[in-house]
Amino acid sequence: MTSIRRWLLGWLICGLGAACIAAGYGIFGTAHLEAGELFDYELRTVALSLPHNISAADVAEGSSHDLLDIADDRLVIDIWDRSGKLVYHSPHEPALPRFGAGFQSAEREGHRWSAFGIEQEERYVQVAQPDSVREDLAITLALRTIWPLALLIPVIVLIVLVVVARGLSPMRWLSQSLTLRSPESLDPITLAPMPIELHPLVDALNDLLARLNDASQAQRTFVADAAHELRTPLTALKLQIQGAISDGSLQVDRATLAKIDGRLNRLIHLAQQLLSMAREDAAREAAIAPMSLRIVCEAHVSDFSLLAEAKSIDLGLEIDNAENEHDAFAILGDMHAFAVLINNLLDNAIRHTSPGGRVDVTLRREENGIALTVLDTGTGIDESEIERVTDRFYRSAGTPGQGSGLGLAIALRIAQRHHATLEVKNRRNMNGLSVSVRGLRTVVIPAHA
After folding, report:
1. What is the pTM of this model?
2. Contact, 4 vs 168, CB < 8 A?
3. Rounded to the nearest 5°, which phi and psi values hold at 229?
4. Which CATH architecture is the domain 287-440 placed in?
5. What DSSP state is assigned to residue 251?
6. What angle is formed at CA 418 by the lines to CA 337 and CA 229, rounded to 5 degrees?
7. What is the Cα–Cα distance from 99 to 91, expressed in whole angstroms?
8. Domain 199-281: CATH architecture, name and number where available
9. Spatial contact of 383 and 339, defined as CB atoms under 8 Å apart
10. Domain ranges across the chain
C-alpha cells in the first residue's frame, strides 16, 4: 500500500540530501581550487620577502631567520648568486634544481613539486613545496569550509519530518473524526480550519452521507408506514370477527377461530415489532440522557407479572453488587429504547419457559459498566444457531409460539446504539437461555432528579 507520508519523506529527504551532497561537492572543489591559488600566492610572497643577508654561512652555523613560520608548510628555499652558485638551501630538505622563473611544476625523486622562481639583481630565488603537502593542506581547508553543511543535513531532515507531519495532520484529524462518529450518524463533516486541498474530499464525503441519509430515511419511512397501515386494519379485523361471533352472525368452530385469532395476533405483533425496529433505526444520540435502569426494570417486571402468573412462572428482579440498597443503577440511555428491549427479552423468556419455570432479571455492576441479564429455564437454543438468533426475521427451527424473529434483532440494535454488547448463550449446568447487555455507561443522577 502506497503511503503519502513515506512518499513525501522519501523524495524530500533524498532530494535535499542529494542537493546538499552536490552543493558540498561544489563547495569542496571551489575551496580546494582557491586553496591552491592561496598556496601559489604564499610561494610568491615568501620569495619576494626573503632578506638579502641570507648566505651559505647561515646554514653552516645553524642560524635561522624569521621566515614567518614557513617551515610549517614544508617550503624549500634555494638562493643562487649571479654566477649560479647555491648560496642558501633550506636545512633538512632535499636539494632541488632550478625549475625556471615564474610558477613551475616538476617531478623530483618520485615527488611532484610546485615552485616559484624570480630573478633579482644579485641572486635568483626559488621557493618550492611538495604537491602532497599542498594537497593535504588544501583538503583540510576545504573540509573546514563544508563541515557546517554536514551539520545542516540532519537539521533539514528534522525540518522535513516536522513539516510533513504538520502538513498531513488535517488528514489525520479527518480520519479520527470519522472513526469517532457513531455508526448511525450521517451528519455533514465539519473541520475548522480546513485546508483548501481537503475541500473536494470533504464535499464528496458530505454528498455521499447526504445520499445515504436520504436512502436510509426513505427505507425507515416505508417500513414505519407499512407497519402502521397494517396494524390498524388488523386490529379492526380482529374486533369485527369477535363481534360477529358474539352476535351470532358468524358461525365457526372453536379450532378454526383459534387459528384465525393466532394468525391475527402474530400479524399484529409483527407490525408492532416493525414499528419498533423502524423507530430504533431512526433513533439518534440526542435521545440518550441519564436514566434509572432499575426503575425501568421494576416497572416492566411488574407489568409482566400477571402473564408469568398465568403460566405459573416465577418472575423476579435481582440486584447484584449494588453501591447501596437504593442504588438506581443510573446509566446514559434512551428510556423508550430500554423499555422496548426489556419487553422483548421478557416476552421471549416467558414465551419459551415451560409452566412452573423461572425467569430472573438481574442488574449487576461490573468493571466496564452495568450489565442487564435475563435468565430463563426454557429449552435454550441449539449451539449451531446461537450466532444467528440476532438476525432479523430469523427463528430457530421448531421454535414454538407466534414470534416474529425481530425481538433479539431489536435488542442488538439498541445495545449497539448505547455502545454496549449483547451476549446470547445457553446457561451452564441447567436448561435455559441467558441474554445479557453489558458495558452500559454509568452516570451520576443528582439527588433532586
Report:
1. 0.46
2. yes
3. -65, -30
4. 2-Layer Sandwich (3.30)
5. -
6. 35
7. 19
8. Orthogonal Bundle (1.10)
9. no
10. 4-147, 199-281, 287-440
Alpha-helical (H) ranges within 50-130 are 56-61
The 3 state secondary structure assigned to 267-330 is HHHHHHHHHHHHHHHCCCHHHCEEEEHHHHHHHHHHHCHHHHHHCCCEEEEEEECCCCCCCCCE
Q: Is the predicted pLDDT of residue 10 greater than 60, yes or no?
A: yes
Rounded to the nearest 5 percent, the helix, strand and coil shares of the chain are 55, 20, 30
Looking at 100-104, 118-122, 286-290, which range is the least confident one? Answer: 286-290
Q: Which cell numbers in the block locate residue 351?
A: 414465551
On average, the pLDDT of the chain sits at 76
Distance CA 117, CA 104 (A): 8
Taking residues 42-71, report their average pLDDT.
62
Buried b (16+ CB within 10 A) or exposed e, 398-426: eeeeebbbbbbbbbbbbbebbebebebee
Q: Which amino acid is at 237?
A: L
**Contacts (Cβ under 8 Å, ≥6 apart) of 300:** 339, 342, 343, 346
Q: Write the DSSP symbol of residue 106.
A: E
How far is residue 38's CA from residue 142's CA, in Å, rounded to a whole number? 12
Percent of the chain with pLDDT over 90: 1
According to DSSP, residue 72 is labeled: G
| pLDDT per residue as tens digits for the range 204-237 | 888 887 887 777 666 666 655 555 555 566 666 6
pLDDT per position as a tens digit, 231-252? 566 666 667 676 666 766 666 6
Residue 66 belongs to what H/E stretch? none
Question: Which grid cell sits at 340?
Answer: 422496548
Top pLDDT among 193 and 312 is at 312
Question: Is 130:74 a contact under the CB 8 Å cutoff?
Answer: yes
CATH 2.40.30 assigned to 4-147: no
| 123: helix, strand or coil | strand
